[in-house]
Amino acid sequence: EREAIIRNFPIGLFSAPNRIIDWGNDKFFEILGYQPDDLKGKSVRTYYVSDEEFEQVGQGALASFKLGKTFSTEIRFQRKDGQLIWCRCSGNPINFEDLSEGVLWTIEDI
After folding, report:
1. Biggest distance spanned by C-alpha atoms of the chain
2. What Rg value do the Cα atoms of the chain yield, rounded?
3. Which residues pair with 14 in a beta bridge?
4. Per-residue H/E/C for 32-88
5. Which residues lie below 8 Å from residue 92, measured CB to CB, with a gap of 6+?
6. How many Cβ atoms sit within 10 Å of the Cβ of residue 74?
7. To 10 degrees, the CA torsion angle through 44, 80, 23, 36?
8. For residues 21 and 42, is the Cβ–Cβ distance under 8 A?
9. pLDDT by residue (tens digit) across 1-29?
10. What digits encode the pLDDT tens for the residues 55-75?
C-alpha cells in the first residue's frame, strides 16, 4: 500500500545519494520527460540547464543541511525533449548528521 501511495503521489519524489539518482516515483520521471532507466544511476546534472546552476544548488543545499534545515529553491530544469520548465525542488537528508545516508527530494512543475 505504501509503495502504491509513493508511486502515485502527485509530487515528484526521488533520492539522489551523492547527486546520483537512485530511485524516483512516476511523477518525478513524468515531470522531466524521462523513463526510469534513462535516469537511474545518472547524475542529477542531466536535467540542470547549466553547470553553474548545478553547482549553486549543490552548495546551497549543503549549507542548509549543515544548519539542520530543509533546502528549497525554484529553478529551471531541462526536460529530455529540451523544453525548459520551472520547478520547485526541496530536499531533506535522511540524517542531518550523516549526509551519506542520502537525501529525499521533492520536485514540482510550477
Report:
1. 40
2. 13
3. 24, 105
4. HCCCHHHHCCCEHHHHECCHHHHHHHHHHHHHHHHCCCCEEEEEEEECCCCCEEEEE
5. 70, 71, 103, 104
6. 10
7. -150
8. yes
9. 677 777 777 889 998 888 889 999 989 99
10. 999 999 999 999 999 999 999
